[in-house]
Structures are given as C-alpha cells and as structure tokens.
Design a protein that fits this description.
CATH superfamily: 2,3-Dihydroxybiphenyl 1,2-Dioxygenase, domain 1
Structural class: alpha+beta
CATH class: Alpha Beta
Helix content: 10-25%
CATH architecture: Roll
CATH topology: 2,3-Dihydroxybiphenyl 1,2-Dioxygenase, domain 1
Order of helices and strands: EHEEEHEHEEE
Number of helices: 3
Strand content: 35-45%
Length: 131
Amino acid sequence: MALGLDYTGYPVNSLTESERFYTRILKLGKPYTDDSWRGYWSNYTVFGIYQSSINDDGIPIANKSNGYISFWVKSAKNTYDYMMGQGSLFPVIPAINSASGIDLSPGYSQVLATDTEGNVVVFTEYSGRPR
C-alpha cells in the first residue's frame, strides 16, 4: 500500500529553540519553513518539526515518543478503507489533522490512523504527484 516514506513529524513546544537545536547542534542544514513547520531534507524524505501545544493537541509529552511517520500512498480513500478494516482508530490531533478519517487539504489528502500500539501513522496522497 505504501509507495515510500514521505516524511516524519515531531511536535515541539518552541519552534525557535528546536530549530536552533536541529540546525546548529545536529547540523542538519537550513530547513525550509512553513507557518509552524520546519523541514530538513534528506535524499527523498523530510524530517520535520512543528509547533504543538500540550493544551491544544495533547502533545508533546516530555520523555515520551511523540513523533509520527507519513507514508506516500496512491489513494487516501483505499488506505482509509483498508485501515478501517484492520481496526485502526482515526484520532484528530489539531496540530496534525482537522478531520477524522480522510483529511482534505489543498494539494493533498491525509489519513491519520493508529498502529497496533496506538502510535500515529499518517498516509498522504498528493493530488499532483505521479503515481
């Protein structure tokens, strides 16, 4: 079902402090920026940090794994149907998605689902990306 690894996302309390850490201390290079997102490119994928709030999003929780992975998929609908059949849950985490199930955004659709351990897994279909 997954065509490849798309990106990883890690919630942070302070985008400024976290960007400084990943840029200056880990030397990942200069990130591309979005409103509340910083992305560090590798060959084919992106390591991303994004602004989050424990009060609004329930994450990040200190000393816990809060990150998630996104896989590139051909069809958000087929992925949603499949994950539904596997008993996956489809939570809403405001810093990541705005709708349970298939979350539509300009240029892409995402499905935020859970794995068997309750970890978040995102599946992304891009409208302009060749399949």
